[in-house]
């Protein structure tokens, strides 16, 4: 087995040492490993694109969900299997799929587990694996300080959420799907159940489903967000009257200027169309 390890040397704490541990662990499973270290945003996607039909048996992404998203955008629609080693801040995909945080165990899965076809979402021209968020969710991700993220890890998102809640409460925006007009204060389109860690907003979401699960906030205001946050922390369903869950294949956000996040990273602003991508991905994760 010949593997290409695309790794982010700034993901999480002590990333260079952990990447070396991953390389050795993959070799212990009999793999020949070539390592590519990213140096800037976009490097992982660009290198994955050039290697999508290259001489490797599999590509292994080592980093956080952002690194994984870049590699996915380079490989979408190809037959190249992709495995993942979690090194980042939150690692939602690892939590969703059952990939261990122990590097030796994760390396074993990367080498031994069978690839499976998963559905990808698409936001504008970008693919996402886990989720896309518009409204308060997008505002928080767009405002997270990279410096604070390096210091506090996931705590940086909590700081950003509190700042947005106090000073920039969400406003209602317009959307439509299948000819139906919608008005919302927040929208999460999910391909996965886990959100921001082990929390769950879309319990019916499935990586192999041809649809996306949507959590739609139908009321604006700080109290609505606090009630949603409390339900999230307590693993409860959305309180009546503030939102609903839907299954969607496409939705268009018409209101301009709303921040959008995909897989935990800022993408851009609306207007934007979201849906299920025609291209799939061969993803390696536990059965």
Order of helices and strands: EHEHEHEHHEEEHHHEEEEEEHEEEEE
Q: Biggest sheet: strands side by side, in what order?
A: 6-5-18-15-8-9
User: Spans with pLDDT under 50 lasting ≥5 residues?
Assistant: none
Distance between the ends: 20 Å
Q: How large is the count of helical segments?
A: 9
Question: How large a portion of the residues is in β-strands, by DSSP E?
Answer: 25-35%
Query: Judging from the principal axes of the Cα atoms, what is the shape?
Result: globular
**Structural class, judged by helices and strands?**
alpha+beta
Query: From the structure provided, what is the oligomeric state, counting identical versus distinct chains?
Result: single chain
User: What's the mean pLDDT score?
Assistant: 90
Helical percentage: 25-40%
Instruction: Report the biggest beta sheet as strand number plus sense, adding barrel if it closes.
Output: 6 strands, antiparallel
Count the strands? 18
Cα Rg: 19 Å
Task: Describe the model.
This protein has helices at 15-28, 43-50, 65-75, 92-97, 103-112, 136-143, 146-152, 155-167, 222-233, and strands spanning 2-7, 32-37, 58-63, 82-86, 115-123, 126-128, 131-135, 173-177, 180-184, 186-190, 194-195, 199-200, 212-217, 243-248, 250-253, 259-262, 265-269, 272-284. The protein is α+β, with helices and mostly antiparallel strands. It has a six-stranded antiparallel sheet with strand order 6-5-18-15-8-9, covered by helices on one side. Strands 14-13-10-7-16-17 form a six-stranded antiparallel sheet, covered by helices on one side. Helix 1 (15-28) packs across helix 5 (103-112). The longest helix has 14 residues, at 15-28. The radius of gyration is 19 Å and the shape is globular. The relative contact order is 0.16.
């Amino acid at each position: 087995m010949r593997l290409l390890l695309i790794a982010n040397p700034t993901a999480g704490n002590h990333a260079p040492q952990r990447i070396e541990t991953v390389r050795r662990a993959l070799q212990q499973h009999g793999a020949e490993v070539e390592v590519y270290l990213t140096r800037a945003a976009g490097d992982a996607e660009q290198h994955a694109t050039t290697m999508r039909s290259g001489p490797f048996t599999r590509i292994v992404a080592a980093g956080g969900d952002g690194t994984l998203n870049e590699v996915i955008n380079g490989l979408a629609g190809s037959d190249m299997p992709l495995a993942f080693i979690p090194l980042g801040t939150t690692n939602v995909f690892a939590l969703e799929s059952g990939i261990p945080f122990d590097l030796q165990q994760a390396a074993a899965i990367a080498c031994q587990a069978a690839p499976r076809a998963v559905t990808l979402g698409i936001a504008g021209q970008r693919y996402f694996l886990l989720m896309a968020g518009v409204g308060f969710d997008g505002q928080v991700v767009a405002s997270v300080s990279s410096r604070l993220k390096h210091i506090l890890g996931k705590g940086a998102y909590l700081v950003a959420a509190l700042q947005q809640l106090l000073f920039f409460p969400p406003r209602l925006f317009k959307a439509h799907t299948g000819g139906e007009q919608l008005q919302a204060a927040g929208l999460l389109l999910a391909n996965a159940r886990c959100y921001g860690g082990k929390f769950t907003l879309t319990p019916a979401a499935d990586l192999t489903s041809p649809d996306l699960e949507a959590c739609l906030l139908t009321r604006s205001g700080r109290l609505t967000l606090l009630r949603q946050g409390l339900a999230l922390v307590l693993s409860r369903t959305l309180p009546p009257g503030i939102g609903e869950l839907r299954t969607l294949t496409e939705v268009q956000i018409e209101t301009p200027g709303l921040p959008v996040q995909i897989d935990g990273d800022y993408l851009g602003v609306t207007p934007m169309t979201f849906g299920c991508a025609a291209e799939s991905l061969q993803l390696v994760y536990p059965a």
